[in-house]
Amino acid sequence: MFDGLKSADDRGGDVPKTKLLKTSMRHQFNEFFDHSTLHGIRYIAQNDRPLHERFMWFSFLSVGIVITSIIIISLWEKFQTSPTITGLDTDFHNWDVQFPAITICPLQSTSDEKVWEYVSSVYDVANTDNERVEIFYKYINAIASFSYSNIEQIKTFSDYDWLPKDNFKDLAYKVVYHCEDLMFDCTFKGEPYNCCSGFEPIFTEYGFCYSFNSRHVVLDWPWKPENYSKSGTEYVYETDNKLSITFNTHNTTKNPLNVIIINTIRFFFIFQKYAFLHILIYE
């Protein structure tokens, strides 16, 4: 790299250190200009190029440096006077957030007493073949409890032509548990609540159920009050002291309940065998 430089001993005398420094700096600059990848710099130091061309490249480079410096300074001043601050604001407000739909499904949706009462209204049990009465009794139970789990059971009755083949929903209404047979002492958001004004009948894949805050309930069950109107949609508000619904049930050892909670993003969780249900919904 320093082939063009000679020591003081080779030249027969002392060489000033300043001259050596200037020679070294000149050589380093030439090396930088010749091998730099910055566009246009190498043309400035090439001795074989015309002077006016080297001056042109020098002018372009100087103008670029000046403009770049101005932009950098202006951006720095802008940042100092109006800095960009990134923060996470957790104080936001949601509205129209629906309280989750809650569906209560008894494991056995039919009442044995009501089924037997219906069978007795159709047949004179004392004077009817016992096998026929038993088949009819089991059929009514299966139809009124229709779900995915007993489809195969219902198929076993296909050979009995004398069994009812239509109006299954009306038949189910005659023998299923009513709302007051399943739950009582309800509270909603910490306040007393009429269970049967909010939990309305619905047919699901789990059988006959009662659903709270659902848009898909049935509206034509026979025992509904005369002044009945579908309950409105319940929402979650920031001012609510509690986001909960509670109720007591009757003998769940004999007839356990399936509790299905469906939220606004369509997830559901199934809980079984609650004697006392206390559902808390947290934000």
Automatic annotation (TrEMBL):
The keyword Membrane applies. InterPro entries: ENaC (IPR001873). Pfam families: ASC. Keywords: Ion channel, Ion transport, Membrane, Sodium, Sodium channel, Sodium transport, Transmembrane, Transmembrane helix, Transport. It is found in: Membrane. The chain crosses the membrane at residues 55-76. It comes from the Eukaryota. Gene3D superfamilies: Acid-sensing ion channels like domains. The keyword Zinc-finger does not apply. This is Sodium channel protein Nach. The lineage of its organism: Eukaryota, Metazoa, Ecdysozoa, Arthropoda, Hexapoda.
